[in-house]
Amino acid sequence: MTDRQLALQAWESLFRAQHELFAEMITDFDGADITQAEYDVLLTVVRSCEMTARLRDVTANMLISQPSVSRLVDRMVSRGLITKAADPEDGRGSLLTATEDGARTFRVLAASHGRSIAEKMSRLDAEEQRTLLALTEKLRGL
């Protein structure tokens, strides 16, 4: 096998594993108070300092494809999950802040979703998980 063939096989396997795991975990959001896309926004916002993040950072950190982030954010504002304000340091940008309800809703789902992730990842032992983390961070340039 050539280096190129190995690289292609490794990439395809990584991509398929991520896709299959994602498909298995979509059921975590069945009957939840927020959608997977809303969870993804709240993931960045709630974990940010003072539960506030720039819209551009939220967009950059999205774990799922969401071409209409602005519309999603506007829906979340209208549902009372986050607030949106002008960024005083960047007049073109916006700051998103999780509301108390948004943070609580996120944390409830995060607990069960975290258990689901841990269950799926338990297919790997701790050393394999550390290796996977190191390899994926290396691929991401971290």
Question: Overview of this structure, please?
Answer:
The protein has about 140 residues and is of the alpha+beta class. It has a single domain, classed as Arc Repressor Mutant, subunit A, CATH 1.10.10.10. Strands 1-3-2 form a three-stranded antiparallel sheet.
Number of folding domains? 1
- Give the CATH superfamily: Winged helix-like DNA-binding domain superfamily/Winged helix DNA-binding domain
- N- and C-termini, Cα separation: 29 Å
Q: Give the CA-based shape.
A: globular
Give the name of the CATH architecture.
Orthogonal Bundle
The arrangement of helices and strands along the chain is HHEHHEEHH
Looking at the structure, the CATH topology is Arc Repressor Mutant, subunit A
Number of strands: 3
Average predicted local confidence, pLDDT: 92
Tell me the structural class. alpha+beta
Give the helix proportion (percent range).
Answer: 55-70%
Over all CA atoms, what is the radius of gyration?
Answer: 18 Å
Strands side by side in the biggest sheet: 1-3-2
Determine the strand fraction and express it as a percent band: 5-15%
CATH class: Mainly Alpha
Number of helices: 6
Largest sheet: 3 strands, antiparallel
Low-confidence stretches: none
